[in-house]
Amino acid sequence: MPTYDYVCDACEHAFELFQSIKDDPIKKCPQCGKNKLRRLIGPGAAVLFRGSGFYQTDYRSASYKKAAKAEKGSSTSEPKSEKKSTTASGGDGK
Q: Model's pTM, two decimal places?
């Protein structure tokens, strides 16, 4: 549910209200009681992540995850093959 900004044209009281998208805008000011309340146009319907625990990498595409996993697997296997070849060549050289 979004948060809407309201301002009263009579007393200039400004506040935010958390309400459903389907709800009609309220007209009566909670401070002065007059029907001069209007809803302001907000900055847009952007998704806001608040709090800890949200990371950019949490929502990667499947193709990105597959490529990252393949890259990780290939970089891990290279040092192992070098170690085996070094050990094998040291044994063959004697």
A: 0.45
